[in-house]
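User: Hey, quick favor. My workstation is busy. Could you predict this chain's structure for me?
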Amino acid sequence: MWLRLNLRYRIYILLVVLVLITLSGGLLTVWYTYQMEGLLSIITENNLVSLQTAQGLESALVNQKGFLSYYFLDNNEDWLEQMALYRGIFDERLEETKNLAEGDKEREGVQEIELQYRLYVSEKDQVIELYKKGERKAGIELHQSVRGIFFKILHLCEQYKTMQTEKILQAKNNSHDRAMKFRVFAFLALLAGICLALFLAFLLVSEILGPIQKLTLEARGDDPSKEANHDEMKALSSSVHHLIENADQTYTELMKSRESLMQAEKLALVGKLAAGMAHSIRNPFTSVKMRLFSLNRSIVLTDYQKEDFDVITQEIKHIDTILQNFLEFSRPPKLKMQLISPSQVVDFAIQLLEHRLRSYDVTVEVIRDQVLPETLADPEQLKEVLVNLIINACEAFTDKGLIVIEEEVEENKKGKKFATLKIRDNGPGISQPNIDKLFQPFFTTKEEGTGLGLSIAARIVEEHGGILDVTSMPLGGATFIITLPIRGE
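Assistant: No problem, here it is.
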């Protein structure tokens, strides 16, 4: 039957089949883009929001514990007001989590969190009442039992976050399976298109080019000055083959670009989430600073109280700086470079942390043969790096400790000089698995840590052209090494 059809109909049939294959591939591609858009929408609108609300639950719970601890320290009822504020935030986040929960397992998890939290709040209120009545011993005993409920709630929040993470991973796996099926179909369509194109070329050569060549030879006759010109047909054949190759390369590049775009969107969402959380936490501290400023102007304090007041103000400013660094994780600021000696930055950091070091019962010893040469650096950001490392060391001590800061000037084989700061402590040290992940964003071993301090510190040192490294001894003690190039104007 195929041979009975004339050349025109055979070419039409081949062209129609090629168009149908191309149209099917195009429609499949459009359908696949909608599927990917829907999948991404589910991840961003549901799963990531649920993950964010679960993180908000943890944050609000931890802040309640912190403000209650402050109240136990100085009996200032302003901390109870702040705790009540975060109780309200926890209730709001809990309500959002309940609305976003999907499936019986998630709902049961949220109900268990709510049940344990109500029990936690009830017993915490009893502890507060006992402290107010002066029955501190009974309050301490009850407080010990309440801690178990606190950690249980944190564990339940982590379980809920794990559920959301697994849902995101499941969505990713589904996307991968769909992509594999799409690749198989596209490969088959591409193979079919190549075969049909080759057959069409054969048909054109055998049914059209052959007769044209014969007509050319007949037209040339016996005149040797006329030569048959086959360049146009060769160029057409070459163009078809190149078109097929380019289509395959374009498809590969399109898939790579799509994967890169999805990854960039995920990182953008994480950065936006980090910035939003830091902004939400920063607002209550702004209110606290305003209250402290008002109190400072309206009451008369003794010298000792004035010192405490100043220390509290400085600590709040320090917390505000940390939150600013949290925002800088998603929007890193430009360095404000100036000529300064790293030794001055070390002195500034120790002076800023003087009261906190006394509270931790930690001694800082500086080994300095001579003041380090001046170099181009941002003193505020370098100071933040040192403050972060010193505070981390203080929090690692279980008893009074010693921090040694050793300053040196080193020179490499090319004659380039470097300022080296070694911050060494006699704490418990860092395990090797944790060292490998220490500078990764959001990795932390602390109960209340954000996991951003060391990541931001490493980035700041790298932006100065230096290196932040860490070593740990098997018997305890860790050493953080900051290496900065000495540069002039």
